[in-house]
């Protein structure tokens, strides 16, 4: 498992590998056999499936940070539909044995809303072709098998979708505050970098640290400290824009990623948040404030350097007396 993979991504890659290992053997066999010894036109129909499997396997093993293998997965499944349905019309190809596997693979590897519509059409076409070419009794048995496979695969897909949502929450959400966590932060910062390179859309970070939080824990206990963190995270999420993201960076440190925002907007946002926070009583009527450091992405730096600038600005805010935002002016922000 690659260090950057989330549990969801690891599971998806593993399932993709299993599908291709199961699909490669029959695809390669039918391609080679029919091109050399059998029905040439059928071999040509299966050949794109084999190529899609090989491309996806190449992407899985050689581009561990890329999601491009999913596109190859989709093309493999779409390309597999015609030969499976055609095989139903040929008595010696036994296409009925591949329909349940195709139904299951589509439900597992395609988005559910796409799979529901596509598999319904495939199942209906398979039933019609099966009844026409397999005979009445075998056609009825095949129809019952297709219906059973469809219902089972659909139910399994819905369970997997629910589990994936839960896994994503575990992987990307902080269990206490329900903010995004550090893993999600680095994913979002990478997206922000790519967005800037493509469209020159600016992004800014606000790194916040609750002032004197250790004293709250020491004087009132950690349970109240946890309540303060939960309350503060809710405050941040309620007072930021829909497309902005709030992350718990660690302990009492939080980060707000402001999309389509340069330094001035980030500074105004931080000061507005601070002014509103001071006037809102925290749990047990405690007064809470924060110090903040701002760093706008300059288009050249790495993610670590971007975070380091925000951290240094936060340090300056603390050194200057806390309960304030740094840098104070855009001219003090180094963009070199």
TrEMBL record:
The keyword Transmembrane helix applies. It catalyses: 2 GTP = 3',3'-c-di-GMP + 2 diphosphate. The keyword Flavoprotein does not apply. Keywords: Membrane, Transmembrane, Transmembrane helix. The chain crosses the membrane at residues 17-35, 41-62, 74-91, 97-113, 142-161. Pfam families: GGDEF. Its EC number is 2.7.7.65. It comes from the Bacteria. It is an enzyme of class 2 (transferase). Residues 201-330 form the GGDEF domain. This is diguanylate cyclase. It comes from Agarivorans gilvus.
């Amino acid at each position: 498992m690659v260090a950057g993979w989330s549990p969801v991504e690891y599971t998806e890659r593993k399932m993709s590998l299993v599908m291709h290992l199961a699909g490669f053997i029959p695809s390669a066999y039918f391609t080679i056999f029919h091109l050399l010894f059998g029905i040439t036109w059928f071999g040509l129909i299966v050949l794109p499936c084999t190529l899609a499997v090989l491309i996806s396997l190449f992407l899985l093993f050689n581009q561990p940070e890329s999601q491009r293998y999913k596109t190859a997965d989709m093309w493999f499944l779409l390309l597999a539909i015609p030969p499976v349905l055609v095989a139903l019309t040929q008595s010696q190809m036994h296409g009925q044995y591949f329909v349940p596997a195709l139904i299951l693979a589509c439900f597992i590897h395609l988005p559910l809303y796409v799979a529901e519509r596509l598999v319904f059409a495939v199942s209906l076409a398979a039933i019609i072709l099966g009844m026409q070419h397999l005979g009445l009794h075998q056609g009825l048995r095949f129809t019952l098998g297709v219906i059973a496979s469809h219902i089972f695969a659909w139910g399994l897909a819905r369970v997997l979708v629910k589990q994936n949502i839960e896994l994503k929450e575990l992987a990307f959400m902080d269990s206490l505050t329900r903010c995004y966590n550090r893993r999600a932060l680095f994913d979002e910062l990478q997206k922000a970098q790519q967005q800037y390179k493509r469209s020159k859309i600016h992004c800014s970070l606000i790194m916040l640290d609750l002032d004197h939080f250790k004293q709250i824990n020491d004087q009132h206990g950690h349970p109240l400290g946890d309540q303060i963190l939960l309350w503060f995270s809710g405050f941040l999420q309620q007072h930021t824009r829909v497309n902005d993201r709030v992350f718990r960076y660690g302990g009492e440190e939080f980060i707000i990623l402001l999309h389509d925002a340069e330094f001035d907007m980030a500074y105004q946002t931080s000061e507005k948040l601070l002014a509103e926070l001071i006037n809102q009583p925290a749990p047990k009527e405690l007064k809470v404030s924060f110090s903040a450091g701002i760093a706008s992405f300059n288009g050249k730096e790495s993610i670590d350097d971007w975070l380091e600038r925000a951290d240094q600005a936060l340090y300056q805010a603390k050194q200057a007396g806390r309960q304030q935002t740094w840098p104070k002016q855009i001219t003090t922000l180094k963009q070199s």
